[in-house]
């Protein structure tokens, strides 16, 4: 990335500087392609997964089948579109219910049956709040039987579990660089070369006329390097991080036995855990942990500094008391055992504070009761 910043070449220019920049972009395209088992020609670089999703979802789909645990970058364009949404059910463990999906597709077979590929299934490979891995290949196979195209949001799964576009049965895939340790503001849409989508941005003929605008060469170089590193280190790294995650969950539960590990028992990404400390408030936990130097998010995290109700946890049927107490802890290549210790020390502080508040709440309740009794007397 630093080398690219020193060079002025535009990948569309024919001079040597331009050709050098083109070389960087094409090398990164091959690296990103290997991460998801697609040929390099199917990678379209974008400003992130949100843009990639918009490119697919603005096409005139007839029906879009999706669940409530999808990321807002998918849900919002579907809501804004003229497509008819058809909702998949989610189990308590955070996984999309495959049996329900089969019945749903059969029930809606007439609506879905238009020209082949005129309706779409949208499914994420793994959830961003719980890390729960979704039964993508099974859902995609069913969807294809009903003539649907398939969009897989692979943002969270990339670099953490194996991804093979054809084995998953995806027509389109979304990728985001910063989730695999690359720079922010760059991502990709993976789409078969012949697949025609109405372009989102009109202008130059970049990305084989599929995404206009000068390529973000520095960002793309970083995305490619991160994809290669993720591919090379994934298995060892996920085993290491998974062991840290398991220890963190076990000890957090020992400190506060009521702690809920959301999605426990379902297949999950090794780097993500969603912990709820009933009786606590997620926002307070986030602040307490932040003061202790530990960066975690509350539920759905926040796009604009606000913490909203998590639609993912609501879709799983979690009681509001549990959902409102849930924080998401993510780990990465930089996470060490010391970080887990720091988290647990801060967690202990939060647990103790909750316990200390409990008698005060009881005393306060007692005082109020006494006041009411006196007033009545
Ligand atoms: N999909 C999932 C599952 C995500 O977690 C995110 C970002 O957090 C996105 C899509 C959007 O990615 P981007 O920020 O690159 O647009």
**Radius of gyration, whole Å:** 23 Å
Principal-axes geometry comes out as: globular
**Ligands, ions, cofactors:** pyridoxal-5'-phosphate
Q: What spatial order of strands do you see in the largest sheet?
A: 1-7-6-5-4-2-3
**Residue share in helix:** 40-55%
Write the layout of secondary structure elements.
Elements: H1 2-5, H2 16-36, E1 43-46, H3 49-57, E2 63-67, H4 72-80, E3 84-88, H5 98-107, H6 109-112, E4 120-124, H7 136-145, E5 149-153, H8 165-168, E6 172-176, E7 187-191, H9 206-209, H10 217-255, E8 260-261, E9 272-276, H11 282-291, E10 297-298, H12 311-315, H13 320-323, E11 326-330, H14 337-376
Parallel strand pairs: 2-3, 2-4, 4-5, 5-6
Antiparallel strand pairs: 1-7, 6-7, 8-9, 9-11, 10-11
The structure holds pyridoxal-5'-phosphate (PLP).
Structure description:
- This protein has 377 residues and is an alpha/beta fold.
- It is 46% helix and 13% strand.
- It is built from 14 helices and eleven strands.
- A seven-stranded mixed sheet has the order 1-7-6-5-4-2-3, with helices on both faces. Strands 8-9-11-10 form a four-stranded antiparallel sheet, with helices on one face.
- Strand 2, helix 4 and strand 3 form a beta-alpha-beta unit.
- The structure holds pyridoxal-5'-phosphate.
- Pyridoxal-5'-phosphate (PLP) binds next to helix 3.
- The site of pyridoxal-5'-phosphate has 12 residues, from helix 3.
């Amino acid at each position: 990335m630093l080398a690219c910043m020193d060079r002025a070449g535009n990948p569309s220019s024919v001079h040597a500087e331009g050709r050098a920049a083109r070389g960087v972009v094409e090398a990164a395209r091959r690296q990103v392609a290997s991460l998801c088992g697609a040929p390099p020609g199917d990678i379209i670089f974008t400003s992130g997964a949100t843009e990639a999703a918009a490119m697919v979802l603005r096409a005139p789909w007839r029906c879009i089948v999706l669940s409530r645990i999808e990321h807002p970058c998918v849900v919002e364009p579907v809501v804004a579109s003229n497509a008819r949404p058809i909702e998949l059910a989610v189990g308590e463990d955070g996984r999309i219910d495959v049996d329900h999906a089969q019945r749903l597709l059969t029930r809606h077979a007439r609506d879905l049956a238009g020209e082949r590929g005129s309706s779409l299934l949208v499914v994420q490979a793994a959830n961003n709040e719980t890390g729960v891995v979704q039964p993508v290949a099974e859902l995609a196979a069913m969807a294809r039987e009903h003539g649907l195209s398939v969009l897989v949001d692979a943002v969270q799964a990339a670099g953490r579990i194996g991804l093979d576009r054809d084995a998953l049965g995806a027509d389109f895939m979304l990728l985001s660089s910063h989730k695999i340790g690359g720079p922010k503001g760059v991502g990709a849409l993976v789409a078969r070369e012949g697949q025609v989508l109405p372009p989102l941005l009109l202008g130059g003929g970049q990305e084989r006329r599929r995404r206009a605008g000068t390529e973000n060469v520095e960002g793309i170089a970083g995305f490619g390097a991160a994809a290669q590193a993720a591919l090379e280190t994934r298995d060892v790294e996920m085993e290491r991080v998974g062991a840290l995650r398991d220890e963190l969950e076990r000890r957090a539960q020992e400190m506060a036995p009521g702690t809920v590990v959301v999605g426990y028992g379902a297949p999950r990404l090794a780097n993500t855990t969603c912990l709820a400390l009933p009786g606590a408030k997620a926002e307070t936990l986030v602040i307490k942990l932040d003061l202790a130097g530990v960066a975690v998010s509350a539920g759905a995290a926040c796009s604009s500094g606000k913490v909203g109700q998590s639609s993912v946890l609501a879709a799983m049927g979690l009681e509001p008391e549990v959902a409102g107490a849930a924080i998401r802890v993510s780990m990465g290549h930089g996470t060490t055992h010391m970080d887990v210790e720091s988290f647990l020390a801060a967690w202990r502080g939060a647990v103790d504070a909750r316990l200390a508040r409990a008698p005060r709440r009881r005393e306060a309740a007692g005082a109020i009761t006494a006041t009411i009794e006196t007033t009545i007397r």
